[in-house]
Specification:
The chain is an alpha+beta fold and about 200 residues long. It is built from five helices and twelve strands.
Length: about 200
């Protein structure tokens, strides 16, 4: 393992460096803040991986059938959209929120991450955009409501979504599988359940 570093949003790093966040050329590469190595969460700062993740989350606006799929049904549905996927080995881990227990019971809709190894990490973004189109053709796409940041109850628009999170195919996306910190009555963390399928 290499030296520790922190990944910051472009907004936060720009503010710390007294730059405008649109000055992305000045945010490229490594920076040091208070003795800590930092890098901006920019696509141009990241290398694609040979591991591609499918992120399964339950979100507002998801139709009842996909929301209630078992893990086997979900993987079969993904296989309908991606021919050959069912014969591929996967590593499955709960997302950080997928490990949270309330009074010893998991959340109603825990998230899971499914990793598959791929030949060309540079092709993931194109693949993700095509997969979202296929999701609508196969009946697994829907329009997810987008809510106001100031008023989470106010719907200000809609965006294309599916039984997977379509935002994870961009190489600057950060995945969280670490042990979450929980504070509150009845909250605890389940052990990581890493599966190889």
């Amino acid at each position: 393992s290499g030296p520790e570093f922190r990944v910051l949003s472009t907004k936060r790093l720009a503010r710390s460096l007294k730059l405008d966040e649109t000055e992305t050329d000045k945010l490229l590469g490594w920076h040091e803040l208070s003795g800590e190595r930092c890098i901006a969460r920019l696509k141009s700062n990241m290398l694609p991986s040979s591991w591609m993740m499918f992120d399964r989350d339950h979100v507002n606006g998801m139709p009842a059938h996909p929301s209630e799929m078992t893990d086997t049904e979900w993987r079969a549905a993904m296989g309908e959209m991606i021919p050959g996927l069912e014969g591929v080995e996967m590593i499955v881990v709960p997302s950080s929120t997928g490990r949270v227990l309330v009074d010893g019971e998991p959340l109603r809709a825990p998230g899971r991450h499914y990793y598959v190894q791929i030949k060309d990490g540079h092709d993931v973004e194109r693949f993700g955009a095509t997969l979202l189109q296929r999701a609508f053709l196969q009946g697994y796409g829907f329009m997810r409501p987008v809510c106001s940041k100031g008023d989470p109850q106010a719907v200000v628009g809609h965006r294309q979504w599916s039984i997977f999170d379509p935002t994870t195919f961009s190489r600057e996306h950060i995945s969280y599988e670490g042990k979450p910190t929980v504070k509150g009555r009845g909250l605890s963390v389940a052990p990581a359940r890493i599966e190889v399928l």
